[in-house]
TrEMBL record, chain A:
Keyword Coiled coil applies: yes
Alphabetical GO biological process terms: ribosomal large subunit biogenesis; rRNA processing
Homology family: Belongs to the EBP2 family.
UniProt biased composition (Acidic residues): 1-26
The protein, known as: Probable rRNA-processing protein EBP2 homolog isoform X2
Upper taxonomic lineage: Eukaryota, Viridiplantae, Streptophyta, Embryophyta, Tracheophyta
Keyword Nucleus attributed: yes
Region (Disordered): 1-33, 138-289
Annotated GO CC locations: nuclear periphery; nucleolus; preribosome, large subunit precursor
Organism: Rhodamnia argentea
Record's subcellular location: Nucleus, Nucleolus
TrEMBL record, chain B:
Protein name in the entry: Ribosome biogenesis protein BRX1 homolog 1
Main subcellular location of this protein, as a coarse class: nucleus
Region (Disordered): 1-49, 290-316
Top-level taxon of origin: Eukaryota
Domain Brix, residue spans: 55-258
PANTHER family named in the record: RIBOSOME BIOGENESIS PROTEIN BRIX, RIBOSOME BIOGENESIS PROTEIN BRX1 HOMOLOG
Amino acid sequence: MPEEEMNDLDDEASDFEPESDAEEEDVKLPEAKANAIYDRDGIMDKLGDMSWPQDVPWIHRLSVDVDRGQEQEVDVNDDLARELSFYTQALEGTREAYEKLHSMGLPFLRPSDYYAEMVKTDSHMEKVKGRLLAEKRKMEEADERKKAREAKKLAKEVQAQKQKERAKQKKGEIEAVKKWRKQRQQSGFSGGDKDGDLPFDFEDGKTFERTGKKRPGVAPGDRSGGKSRQGGVKGRKGMDKKMKKRETRDSKFGFGGKKGMKKQNTAKTTDDLRGFKQSDTSGNKKRKR
Amino acid sequence: MGKKRKHREAESDTNGSEANKEDAASERPKRTLLGWKEKPKENEDNATPGFRNKEKVLVTCSRRINFRYRHLMLNVVSLLPHCKKDNKVESKETKGATLNELVELRNCSSCLFFECRKHLDLYLWMAKCPNGPSVKFLVNAVHTMEELKLTGNHLKGSRPLLTFSANFSKDAHWMLLKEMLIQIFGIPKGHQKSKPYHDHVFAFSIVDDHIWFRNYQIAVPHNESDKVSRGSLEKMTLVEVGPRFCLNPIKIFGGSFGGPTLYENPFYVSPNQIRALQKKQKTGKYAKKVKAKTRRKMHELSNPLEPDEFADMWKE
């Protein structure tokens, strides 16, 4: 019994397979429809019947035959090539038509001041414009992000180099001063002409001028080089009184946050009477201290 | 009926006024093709100047048409100002006599009938109505004008330039189709709703035995009104307006919506058949699996394995 079943299934499967292979794509089945009707004479008769007479002026027909130089190289499934071929065909056709129209002296293109109803509404064109702009913006953003990434990588290297250079320069200057001092010492503080050249050749009048490179958004009177506006400990020079005050306060009172839970007395700090002046009784005397 | 007469009168008025534009007054057609004299809306063919294209296209669809195909039909209606849009026709009436009557009733000379079957396939009938040939196409690859990727725009009702690829003259049925396309998709010169300039172009190409339709806007940067200089001809670009579709001719009939078959596409496989075959393939898969199982069983029964020496080794 299982063999019979098997045989049945076999037959069905064998029936299916050649058909499905041959007719899976709807292309090129000459053997399937060898008897397709093609009545060429009938067609030409009909064509003669229904077509306009041959001497109808071209302006009524407005049709252009474009002969694409290469014959049928376009693969249907290659979207880009196919669309390109359509585009070139239309372009060629338009050029030819333009020549003809121009020779006939007829207006061809719409002048810019001719306003009339268009086939797509204005609101629709707004949507199209919005979409185009959005696409452009996305592309630009992506470009910028890429550039920023690259620039970051580069910037690190550049910064490192600059720091090295600065360090070297500083070293060089210090060395120069030392040498000058030594020279002076050796020459016995004679204060001659030699002093003029070497040690101060780095000066160039630039030492007391800060570089014009301030970070953007810094007030022109800012003498800290824009660094005081930066956050982070790395940028601080600690020169400002504010910074010192801030630092002491931070160390004593913490950095803000939940009230009361941050600083608690430890064994050491309860006996720490550093902040208090013993003889200061300017407040309420009755208050227990 | 009264409406018909008024319409005819109005037409004859415009005839008279427009005839002045032509070189000679419009004469009676010297050559009456298939007795068109009594139907003034048909093509009046004159050998001498005064040819008037009086093409009118009736555009209808069947019921239960898909949204995408309905939009395609509406796009076609907006592209052809010489068309008349009619109500949906019942599915029983999609063949033969009723459509012909409808076309005559509306005084049209050709018809574009969008037939949608099973909410999936769109068939387009293109027919020249009183006696002309008709073609049935299967429509694929539909993109309507509402797609935001098609960014062009043109005047509503401006006459298009029609470009055909060279292989339209290769064979008889292509030539017939080309003539039908010119007559249906070309807007008559001097039509009331037509606009004067030519700012879009239709591209019909035959690739892989399908007719591909594209509609492009002609964009030329020019500063003066009409004078398009030579130089700007090179800078002419085309922007696609849409819609886009691909036509697969199925059959060409000698009469309108019927008649003797003049041409049958040998490579055409109906989409129903394709779907059926795909389903059959799937059923075939299961059957094959079952068959493979039974075959394996038979094979095992017929070739029993030798008892394994070590089978009992780990048995408790």
